[in-house]
Amino acid sequence: MPYKYFGLFIALLLTYTVPAQTPATAPKRILVLGLNSSQFNSNVYYINELAFLNDTAQSKVVDLYNQTLLQTLTEYSATQYQFVLANAIETAAIQRKSNYVEWKNEYKEPYLALDADSLQDILFRDLIRKYAADYILNLNYYNIFRNSPPVFYSTSIKTRHIIDYELFNNQLGIASAGQITLISTNAKATAMKPKYSDFAAQLIERLQIVEGNFPPAVAEKKYLRQRERIIKDAWGAGFSLGWGNTYGWFSTQLLRNIGTQWDINGGIGFGPSGFKAGIGARYFLLNYGRRYKPFFEINYAWASGMKIEMGGEKDDSGTQLYPDRVSTFRIPSDQAIHLKTGFRWLKNSKAWMLHVGYAMPFKGDKAKIVAAGSDVSVETFNRRKNWADLFTIGGVDVGITYLVYFQR
Q1: pLDDT in tens, 255-283
Q2: Keyword set for this entry (predicted)?
Q3: In terms of DSSP bridges, do strands 81-85 and 28-33 run parallel, antiparallel, or are they unpaired?
Q4: In this structure, are 44 and 181 located in the same domain?
């Protein structure tokens, strides 16, 4: 090839081999309308306590929480979305004419909704045009809540900050609506900024489910999974009761969630097979209903074994009155693998679990006879021996567990 055409050849080659860069897509704009004093409530703190906590005047408490929330939204970094604020005059004009009613979203979850008769279509459409907004986020209600209000004032009370909202598209149809709950042990407005960022993240996740145009069943499944983010990677603790329970008939356990589908757990407890300890893992399947979730579980458990007595009678001091009528057995130490299935019922950060399963012992030794009792009939002794054999590790595992998850 002549040298004078070499440069032209290279230029053509680069033209066809270097991909053209796609222009960056402008983020979708979410116009935010804030709160006023009638949209704020707390059953945990009186307004003067919130004023003291935030070092501000009582008349400025609601505005402080509102402005902190709004500022956090505008500072939130999201590639595809941008939160913008309507000015105070425009927000006040909407608030003056807005009424709210108790309602349920498409997933049958209650929230405080903007009354359709008070929806100011003209004002909303003007705001959409003015701000070139793709969505309008109306903050309907802010509630600092606790099931059992505290007896004494404290700055470190664990509370739920529940925000009711509606997200309208630019045709004023509801894109998303409901409640988002934020858990905090510091209710000071400035301390809530990381939680408000989480509010923004959850809102965007819900919006992306809507924009994905998924079939209703798939969208609901994604929504329920998103709602469980409150326990994602969270630690939890609880107690269990049951027959043949993995960690003992009366036991405590500690767990760590891995995402929302797995957890690893360990526990200790006590039962007729002695002191018990073990570890295990659960895998949660798809949601069944609104709050129920089936799971499978596998555990390894160790039992120390113990000596038990059956029969006889003791006086008030614990002295055996009829030692010849007592049968004594030694429950052997052993290990077992437990396979279980069950359901978890989750509400916010608390859960109940019901399970049934079977434990396979490593040795499977029966209870050892220490003393049959010289004044015990054969029939009575055999009945006691059968009961003692049931107390060994292994066999049917049925129980109930109560758990509390600790949010980060």
Answers
A1: 999 988 899 999 999 999 999 999 999 99
A2: Signal
A3: parallel
A4: yes
